[in-house]
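Usage

Read records sequentially. Each one opens with the input sequence:
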Amino acid sequence: MNAPLWGLEAHWLWLIAAGLLGIAEMIAPGVFLIWIGAAALFTGIVALLLPVGTIVQFLVFAVASLVAVYAGKRYLRDNPIASDDPLLNDRSKRLVGTIVTAVEPVDALHGRVKVGDGVWSAKGAEAAVGDRLRVTGSDGSVLIVERV
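and closes with the structure output:
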């Protein structure tokens, strides 16, 4: 076995790392750290069951990380997470159909419209200040509008 580090055998360090990565995934979910944590867990189990050196442990961790991330990415691609509100984090797409008011002249290239208590960049149908427009889509954060 390896010499203890901080008074702990190597397998305990891998298992602690797996736990910390799992906690980090819960605090800042991104569906990534969990796979690295799974690789650390696997490496900890290998280090517990087999007398392998530090270099081999790091190689096992590296390979397990690649395999886990690839498998996780493939799983999430094949089984996407369904949402009750798929536009939750896409504010510009949520505004499609909303009636807005031009606060600066709008033309095919640029303009500004009032949406609620904010002002957004817009382009589309020509409109003068005060004209009412309907949002038909977005190009990034620029709203595409048409006359009502």
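Summary fields computed downstream for this record:
- The mean pLDDT is 90.
- The two ends are 76 Å apart (CA to CA).
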